[in-house]
Amino acid sequence: MKPGVLSKTPAARPVPSMPRLSPSGWIVLALLPVLAAAPLLLPTYQVTLANNIGIFALATLGLVLLTGVAGMTSFGQAAFIGVSAYATAYLASVSAADLPASLAWMAGSPLAGLAVGLVLTLAIATVLGAVTLRLSGHYLPLGTIAWGLSLFYLFGNLEFLGGHTGLSGIPALSLFGIAFDKAETLFYLIWAVLLLAVVATLNLLDSRVGRAIRALRGGQRMSESMGVNSFQAKMTAFLVAALYAGLAGWLYAYTQRFVSPAPFSLQAGIDFLFMALIGGVGQVWGAVIGAAGVTFAKQWLQDLLPHLLGRTGNFEAIVFGLLIVLLMQRLPGGIAGWIAKTFERRRHRPAVLESMDLPDAEPLPRRPMPEKGEVVLEARGVTRRFGGLVANHDISFAVRAGEILAVIGPNGAGKSTLFNQLSCVDHPTSGEILFRGERVDGRTARAMASAGLSRSFQHVKLLPTMSVLENVAIGAHLRGSKGVAAAALRLDRAEEARLLAEARRQLVRVGLGQYLHAEAGSLALGQQRILEIARALCADPCLLLLDEPAAGLRFLEKQALAELLVKLRSEGMAILLVEHDMDFVMGLVDRVYVMEFGERIAEGPPATIQTNPAVLEAYLGGVE
Ligand SMILES: Nc1ncnc2c1ncn2[C@@H]1O[C@H](COP(=O)(O)OP(=O)(O)OP(=O)(O)O)[C@@H](O)[C@H]1O
After folding, report:
1. Spacing, Cα 422 to ligand 1 middle (Å)
2. Separation of 418 CA from ligand 1 center, angstroms?
3. Residues 257-264, mean pLDDT to the nearest whole number
4. What is the distance between the alpha carbons of residues 72 and 234, in angstroms, rounded to a whole number?
5. In this predicted complex, what is the ipTM?
6. 26-348 domain in CATH 1.10.3470?
């Protein structure tokens, strides 16, 4: 038995009283003096280059969140920048007389330009997101290509935006009496905005909302079952990415003091994706590294190649393309991904958790539990057909608080199909499902999680690169309420401490207390199953659905799991499990429901079931 799995674990390790600075905190601290000195020491053309890098990095940061973390590819980032840049340029250069009287105050106002630019960008992103984010597969990338193309041509064809010539005559930026009229002063503004965005993104990812966004990539079905609204999480990532593009557009307009359609073309959208890929698409700092790397590499190749080849041409694009292919093959996680991996290997701990202290926070409030003996879940005549196949036929049973009911049956009997319907992942063709007396068939898995049903999966579903603690904290998603702004501004710490303390409590309870900071994917399969139970418990359920919880567990681990389930039962939990391990089932549960070919063949206490001739014939007869 692996140490600690469902064994009596020591209490969680002592909690440091002062939060330690995270690696990103150290990076920001180290960058501050460098950034403060850069404009004073560098020649103006290099400061201008650094300004471009800052703006590109801001736009790329959005893509890191959207594409790298949330797994949604967008080619439209440059177009979002364009919307904001054009709104800024238009309002900065228009005369008050050309605007309606009520809007005349906006003419020449940089803050009005910023507000209008951001509102327009977010409004377009909301519409585009509403249309494409519910669709899976290639619809989002294709939608962003279509939108990027149409906007590019729109910019070029609108006369009041200067057509293909663009808008010039943007005055120098002046904010609150400070003139940002030189590359050197703009540098401070651009890099301050970028650093704030980086810190806000790091904060966001290290939060309840951040876990929901991180679960989008490969864990959607699981997180929905834990109450996460995946569409909302996608929309959040999409809008934050658009917000960063909007900010980048505003800064771009005042840096260039001229806008035209070319920098917002589809090609530019692809370039931002390259920056994210090269920097490290899943890493926040990858945006800065990627923007700097691509900008310098292009500049360097543009200077070097004509010398080497003795002629001019777009050779840098060809060499650059080859370099990207090579880099993707050698470093699929990008430069920042490679650095993070090397760093983590040395520290033997995931970077994201370095700063996390786990104070003994006040326990989260608990839902009112049903009285022992109260029917928690009831299936009435549930039938599920797949075309001509009847996977469940007229299934009826009830599970009560303080009871463990096992559903058993040979492979293909219809147990998983039934589980999916009970948890509203799938819906019955006919029949009714009631949860605590209310009809729930047709509801979403999310609604069931909110009602108090929590589950584990036949094939373990966890986020392998996320820590054990954070995986389990996803189970507590509905027990928190702090949103994006609170997370970005770190106003969610008290709630986050309570969520993490609850996750730790459940992990200690199931015997995984010393694996809090390990990557979930590094646990043995049996431990991963136990992690799923801790995650389900973190939701404070009144009904646990466990799909083959003992599969992959060793003898002592099974014994410890049985002890835990008995304890939960004594606390009034209703437990429904599907299991193939007959020794485990018969020694543990109160009642057994036996299925074959989608139908009930027997139901009763284990002792009766073990001697039931129909069961022996259909199922137990084949089992020693
Ligand atoms: N989405 C689906 N479309 C078509 N047929 C399906 C679908 N899901 C399940 N089935 C069929 O329904 C029947 C019951 O399958 P189910 O997975 O529920 O059985 P099970 O008892 O859970 O089996 P196991 O113990 O092997 O997991 C099988 O014949 C299966 O092929």
Report:
1. 15
2. 9
3. 94
4. 8
5. 0.96
6. yes
